Every structure is written in C-alpha cells, then in structure tokens.
Amino acid sequence: MKSFLFAALVGVTLVAGAVPTISNVSLSQETGSRNVRVDYTLSEPAIVTWTLETNAVANASEGWIPLPEGVANTCTWGDINRRVDKTGACTFFWGADHSWDDQLVAKGCARAVLTAWSIHHPPLYMVVDLFGGPCIRYYTSTNALPDGGLASDIYRTHKLVMRKIPAKDVVWTMGIPEDVGDGSYEKFKDANKSDNLAHKVKLTYDYYIGIYELSRAQWGNLMNTKTGYGWMKDNVSMQNAYPGGGQYPSYFRAGDTSAFCGRLRDFHGADYAFDLVSSAEWEFAYRAGEPQTLYTGLAWNSTNAKACGAVVSNSQTTHEVGTAFPPNRWGLYDMFGNVLDGTRDTGSPSSWQDREDYKTTGICVDPVLTGSGYIYRGYYLLQWYQIEEGDYWNACVTGTFNDRIGYRIACPVPNAD
C-alpha cells in the first residue's frame, strides 16, 4: 500500500465576518506517515474550524468535494476547532489514518478550507470534555462532531454537547398567551396558574445550552466518581438523566470545585460562565421559535404531550438522554420530558410581575428570579394527569428534590465590550 495520502496539497481561507482573518494557509504531509500538517497565519484571537476538500484532477476542473466533516475532525490536534488565543503563526495536525484509513488521492489534490469566527460570534456547537481535562472544542453542526457524531455514547458520558441559542436582544413572549388557540391558556387559567401567563422578556446575550439533560455518567466523570449516592443503582444506565436525589441547584452552582458548575468554571476561566439554565433561557430554547405551548405546535393535551416525552412508560425509571423522543427544531432533546430541569431561579414564578423593568417598560430583561424555593421547568415521566388538569410546567419546589428532578447546563456567549 502506498504511504502517501495526497499528490498535491493547497490551502484556502474563508472568513466569518470582516474580522478576524486567516492567511498563508499551507498543507504538508509528514514523510512516512499519514499525518497532515496545516499551517496558517491568524490576525487576532479567534475560533478556527475547517473542512477538507478533494478533487479527482489536479486543476480542480471537476469541482471540489468535501470530506464528511466528522471524518476531517476526528483525530485533530493543535490550533483547530477551538479558541486560538494568539496571533501570527498557527499549526494543527490531522491523523488521517484514524478516520480516513487506506484512502488515497494519488492523481488529484486536496485543500483545507479554514473559517475564522469571532470569539463573540462562535460556531453553533460547543463540546466540553468532562473527563480528559480542560478542553473545549467548537463545531459547525452535529454532523461535524468527530467519533461518529451524536450516535456515539461519548456525547452522553464523557463530553457535554451544547448548542448556541440566538437569543440576543430578541423580545419574545414567555408564558402562555391567550391567543395561541391550542387550549393551554384555558387549562392554566381555569387552574388559576397565573404564574404561567404571558409576559414580554428580552435576553441581552446569546448562550449555549446542553442538548441533553445532564446524565449520571457526565456528572460522575467530571466529579471523579462513578458510584456517587445511593440513587445511582447498578440497574440504571449511567447515560440516564441525572436525578436530583436530594441535591439542590445550589449544590451545582457553588463557586468552588466541589460543585459541577463551579468545577467547569474553574477549568475554563472567566469567559465560560457555566451555570444551570435560567427559567427564561430554558423556555426560549424550549420553544425554538414556536409560539404554541408545546414546541411541536400541537394542541395542549396528554396525547400530544406524550409525543414530546412527558410520559415514557409505566415505569418510574428515567431513560437514556436523547434516545426516546425526537428533538425540538433546535436539536434539543427531552425538553418536555424524562426529568424536570432544575433552574438557577428561585422564589415564585409569578414574581416577574413585581420587577421594576416590567412595571416601567413592560419587558423583563435578563430575568433571574430570587426568593424561597427552586423553580424547575418542563414535565417528567408519569405526569400526564397534571397536563390534563392544567397543572403548571413552571413550578416552585420548596421541599427536597427527588429522582424526577434533573439539570441542564448553560453558558453565555461573551458579549463584545
């Protein structure tokens, strides 16, 4: 078998926006190996992603054909798919033998297409390593994820996949408006659940949110324990949604490394303000642009709610994250079922009515409510009867959390000064 991968190598650049810029792209192959080296010059700190394109003839007259993104991103190291906090000469490597074994382009050529992203306008997906030390990677889509994409268990056990939510400066309706026509308003009004009635909200930032509820294995891998507390039973998959088990949101939010979010912040620095999702962040991401109460746009009843995941089976067991029900239109799984999502908001969900910004402008800006008790969102398995009775999907818990309460992690995108 021939030892070389390409007969000719060239490089090109794409730029996301006016700045930053990439120039002087070159590719080479290490002698006697299938490792490909890419060198480039970066004008200012940025996030850099890439694709690899090949062609059957050297002059590219038949057009360029991209490799599957996940193939090109498997076994890369150096200044790629991450935040590059330097300027000038940069280098990364691709181990083609790990993801493109025995493939040759003996009579053609190949090129690397690099894209520079502003730190304030990063790619759609951020992946956080929970096991191998501080490492954050960025990808343009779930198809670009290495190691087989979302089909791989590593994204439910060892890595945390987060999707960017385009919320910055969008004024939207939180709660249940009277005119959506799906029957939900009448249910909630008749049950006197004024907590959930419509009000205007604006978030002044984009943010990343976990596409899955936190799994037991993800918690265990970051916190260096595989057994944890008594509720981690051997017969329950470590990929099942993480249950509260008596652990309040404050346990996840503490500023030191004894807490899940505190440890993430300590690993990755001030620009990565990992935290539990807020109630407003949760609902904006849940809706994914859908005005109806159910993110599918269907009428509010137990049948349609079950299709979103509010009921799994007649078992009291949570299911493996991201496996039982389709995602919403932004690719977020289990937003309406499996377990409830504990948030960083506390107090009464109706306290938005007392906020000064709402009283003066009619808009709650970046609301995070404070008070007694914890606010959780969504529904959990075996809760269909509460849907039928108009019980709320936005509630305050003052007692001990139980195995129906889980968590979803968020991280704001840094705003430009």
Protein described:
The chain is an alpha+beta fold and 417 residues long. It is 17% helix and 28% strand. The protein has eleven helices and 22 strands. Strands 11-10-12-15-22-16 form a six-stranded antiparallel sheet. Strands 1, 4, 5, 7 and 9 form a five-stranded mixed sheet that branches. The longest helix has 9 residues, at 260-268. Mean pLDDT is 78; it is low at 6-10, 227-235 and 382-392.
Summed up, what is this model?
With 417 residues, the protein is an alpha+beta fold. Helix content is 17%, strand content 28%. It has eleven helices and 22 strands.
Low-confidence stretches: 6-10, 227-235, 382-392
Spatial strand arrangement across the major sheet: 11-10-12-15-22-16
Q: How many strands appear in the DSSP assignment?
A: 22
Number of helices: 11
Strand content: 25-35%
Q: Which outline best applies? A: elongated
The description of the largest β-sheet is: 6 strands, antiparallel
